[in-house]
Structures are given as C-alpha cells and as structure tokens.
Design brief:
By secondary structure, the chain is mostly helical. It has helices at residues 2-36, 40-48, 56-82. Helix 1 runs antiparallel to helix 3 and helix 2 (40-48) crosses helix 3 (56-82).
Length: 83
C-alpha cells in the first residue's frame, strides 16, 4: 500500500510538471499565431502541405505544436493512472 501511495504522489508531481510544459507551449503557439495572424491548426495544414516556406519560425512553430500534442497525450495518460 505504501508503494502505491508513493507512485501516485510521484505521478501527481509529474502531472504538475506536465502542466507547466503545456503552459509554455501554449503560450509560444499563441505568440506565433499573433505574429503570423493565423491559427496553429491552419498553419499546420499549410506547413504540412508545403505552402508555408522555410522560415525558421515555421520549424519552431511546427515543433512546438507537435510537442504540445505529445505532452497533452502523456499528461492524459498520467491523469488516467492517478484517478
């Protein structure tokens, strides 16, 4: 029983760390959206179809969007484990 509580405590701490990472990526995406005046979803569609070009910002934006999705998925799994 003690090990189970320690595991849950660790997972809760990880969940909080993931929340911080999500906030960082969400803020970064919002800044890209404001700078380029399009939504991240529209950007991803255009970037993946080759319509956006090779601006260095675009590669960062793409990476941040993909990382945000991965962090959300992992955080969701952690959330399920601690419920």
């Amino acid at each position: 029983m003690q090990e189970t509580n320690e595991i849950k405590t660790s997972l809760k701490r990880e969940y909080a760390l993931y929340s911080n990472a999500l906030a960082f990526y969400e803020k970064a995406l919002k800044e890209f959206e404001q700078k380029h005046r399009i939504t991240t979803q529209t950007f991803l569609e255009r970037f993946e179809s080759g319509q956006m070009g090779d601006n260095a910002d675009y590669f960062d934006w793409y990476a941040f969007a993909k990382l945000l999705a991965r962090w959300r998925k992992a955080q969701s799994a952690i959330h399920s484990a601690i419920q």
